[in-house]
Amino acid sequence: MSELRDLYQETILDHGRSPRHFQVLDDADRTADGYNPLCGDKIKVFLRTKDGRIEEAAFQGSGCAISMAAASLMTHAIRGASREELEETFRVFQDMVTGKIDEAAAAARLGKLVVFAGVSKFPVRIKCATLAWHTARAAMAQIEEPVSTE
């Protein structure tokens, strides 16, 4: 179990230091801004959709390693998703990081996102892990007001 935790930690640190999909999508048709006032994380999510599905996802912003890693892994995970699939994946992710379900129960739906299961032991970090998700949901719903974790 210690080796698995080490791998999880390394994955989060890797994506936190070198986030993937960290760019502006010039042809995005949906965007949203998110802010976590507790620790200062700021993010902008860019989505390009086609036929009701997320064709491409990217983000820009700054924040802690958990926030940046969550955005990095999320932008990969939501590609190809419909709004309903985005909502369902978010629900499972949120249930996992809040400790309502364990990583084994979440693994089939979340894949690599299970690396955030340990966040449930640090409640103050839950908002860091979910900021990108709230922001992506707002972008998909075309909500113009910035999203806040408060």
TL;DR?
The chain is of the alpha+beta class and 150 residues long.
Strand order of the largest sheet: 3-2-1-4
Topology-level CATH name = Sufe protein. Chain: A
Q: What fraction of residues sit in β-strands?
A: 15-25%
CATH architecture: Alpha-Beta Complex
The total number of structural domains is 1
Secondary structure class reads alpha+beta
Radius of gyration from the CA trace? 14 Å
First and last CA, distance: 34 Å
CATH class term? Alpha Beta
Number of strand segments: 4
| Shape by Cα distribution | globular
* Helicity, as a percent range: 40-55%
Residue-averaged pLDDT = 90
Helical segment count: 5
What is the H/E string? Answer: HEEEHHHHE
Largest sheet, described in full? 4 strands, mixed
pLDDT < 50 runs, ≥5 residues: none
Keywords for this structure?
single chain; 150 residues; Sufe protein. Chain: A; four-stranded mixed β-sheet; globular
Please describe what this structure looks like.
The structure is a single chain. The chain is α+β, with helices and mostly antiparallel strands. The chain has a single domain (2-144), classed as Sufe protein. Chain: A (Alpha-Beta Complex). The chain is built from five helices and four strands. The chain has helices at residues 2-17, 65-77, 83-97, 103-110, 126-140; strands spanning 30-36, 41-50, 53-62, 147-148. The mean pLDDT is 90.
Write the layout of secondary structure elements.
Layout: H1 2-17, E1 30-36, E2 41-50, E3 53-62, H2 65-77, H3 83-97, H4 103-110, H5 126-140, E4 147-148
Parallel strand pairs: 1-4
Antiparallel strand pairs: 1-2, 2-3
Helix pairs in contact: 1-2, 2-5, 3-4, 3-5
